[in-house]
Amino acid sequence: MIAQAEFKINSQAWQNLMPYLYVPHNQKDYEQLVSFLDWLIDQVGEDERHPLASLMEVVGVLIECYEDEHVPELGSKKAY
Predict the structure, then answer these.
(1) Above 50 in pLDDT, residue 31?
(2) SS3 content of the chain, % helix, strand, coil (to 5)
(3) Whole-angstrom Cα Rg for the chain
């Protein structure tokens, strides 16, 4: 179980991350996350040991989920 002191520290950390880490629900949210991912990529590059590497991965997954739901695949056309 998380001790009260740890919880307080983690709560503050989450408050700092909330503007950048969220499930996108519309185009504006999506575009902001893509911009954040671009910034993370610039910081992390290909360094899998970088402290922000796992955050970059999480943001990428959030973007991918949004795209799966809202962005049509290029070249996918119904055959008649």
Answers:
(1) yes
(2) 60, 0, 40
(3) 17
Query: What is the DSSP code string of 29-57?
Result: HHHHHHHHHHHHHHHHTT-TTSTTHHHHH
Do residues 30 and 66 touch, judged by C-beta distance below 8 A? yes
Token pair listed for 73: 């695949």
Residues 12-25: tens digit of each pLDDT = 999 999 999 999 99
Question: Residue 3: what pLDDT?
Answer: 84
Predicted local distance difference test score (pLDDT) of residue 80: 44
Distance from C-alpha of 63 to C-alpha of 57, rounded to nearest angstrom: 10
Mean pLDDT of 65-71: 93
The one-letter code for the residue type at 42 is: D
**Angle 60-41-39 (CA atoms, 0-180°, nearest 5)?**
95
Per-residue tokens: 62 = 């959030």
CA quadruple 22, 23, 28, 31: dihedral sign: positive
